[in-house]
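From the pipeline queue, job 12 of 40. The input is one protein chain; the requested action is below.

Action: predict structure.
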Amino acid sequence: MNEAYVKNLFSLDGKKAVVTGASSGIGRGVAVSLANFGAQVALIGRNPEGLKETARLVAEAGGASESYIVDVSRKEEVDAFYDTYLEKHGGIDILVANAGVNIRGEFTDTTMEEVDTLINTNFKGVLYHVLRAGECMKKQRSGNIVIMSSVNGISAMPNLAIYSSVKYALEGLTRAVAGSLAEFGVRVNSCAPGVVLTAINEKIYAIQENLDKKMESIPMRKIGYPKDIGDVVATMVSDAFGFMTGSTVLVDGGEHLRAKQPQKQN
């Protein structure tokens, strides 16, 4: 193996990255993976203690980070962050728009408050960051944006109707922005995870019946971990994927695949 070639292809040395929702879960996994690949990471979140732990893990990986308390659903806070960050660093190479919430429940039981929460955080919260980072990357004529979608944005989950609808919207946003920024050397793609063991769902899958039922829908018969998503995202923003934009990378153990059909006949 040509180690120098491989290292150069995947290296993110010196790249300036911003990761939203970095205080836990997938965001934390992405931040640590980016650090392992050489990037300097700005950690965005609302939980100071969570960000502190992510910063510790980034440092353990040999990386550098800085933390910012930002509510992604509030445009004024997002703008204030970019004003501060860009004044300090002069540019941004990577944005991973990951922050999001999940509200489970049947469609007919959904409240307008829940709808607003999902739209404000999961869609507008992504849009605000993509607008500011995209504006900067367009001027510098380089950059990578990864929007965190979901397998539920590819194949809708019946009892996650609004959540799935918003993730579908993010898939549309990915394609539209990719088309707008491609000529400026900016790549925009989405990553669509399946079920990942994070603090949000560990209680649900601690119940064996829930775990068994979920495993039946995943051909690989396993649940993912934040690192599984983080390492994929880190490669997506490397030169190894330099000719890919407007695409979705599914990381779901095959959950989006159709179930096997019966073979036995009388």
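Job complete. The radius of gyration is 19 Å.
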